[in-house]
Write a structure and sequence with these properties.
Length: 126
């Protein structure tokens, strides 16, 4: 079980960094919902050369391969809830790196997610 927890922590960290980089990179490109087709195509071309988006995609690939490794030895009902640790890291890191506001209601939900992950992890017999 320790192996699962360590690899999932690495995977979740990589996934969280990837999500933060993608969010930051996309915000720099602008709101796609307000663009016309030409603007969207220009943004798509810029996305292919934006370092934050490229590195963010690489970090999500790292997450994916670590996730595949975990699935090779752990039950899905144990491993999948551990991905929810991503919500906790995102709540903390988005405040500092993306300057997002995390309301008390969001923190309450994050705490509930953390409690749920701990219960599921302990139920696996570790």
């Amino acid at each position: 079980m320790l192996k699962t927890v360590i690899v999932m922590l690495l995977a979740v960290t990589a996934g969280t960094i990837g999500d933060l980089l993608l969010a930051s990179g996309m915000k720099e490109l602008g709101d796609l919902s307000t663009m016309n087709l030409k603007g969207i195509l220009n943004a798509a071309l810029q996305a292919l050369t934006t370092p934050k988006l490229i590195f963010g995609t690489c970090m999500l690939a790292v997450f994916f391969f670590l996730w595949l490794a975990v699935l090779s030895w752990e039950d899905l009902t144990v491993a999948l809830p551990m991905q929810a640790l991503n919500y906790i890291l995102v709540a903390f890191l988005s405040q500092y790196f993306l300057h997002e506001t995390v309301t008390p209601m969001r923190w309450a939900g994050t705490v509930l997610v953390a409690i749920g992950v701990m219960l599921i992890t302990r139920s696996s017999g570790a």
